[in-house]
Amino acid sequence: MQPLIKTIPFSIKLADSFFTRLKGLMFKKEQLVEEGLWIIPCNSIHMCFMHFEIDAVFLSNKGEIVKVVERLKPWRFVKPIKDAYSVIELPAGSISQLGLKQGDILSL
Question: Which residues belong to the signal peptide in this entry (predicted)?
Answer without folding.
Answer: none
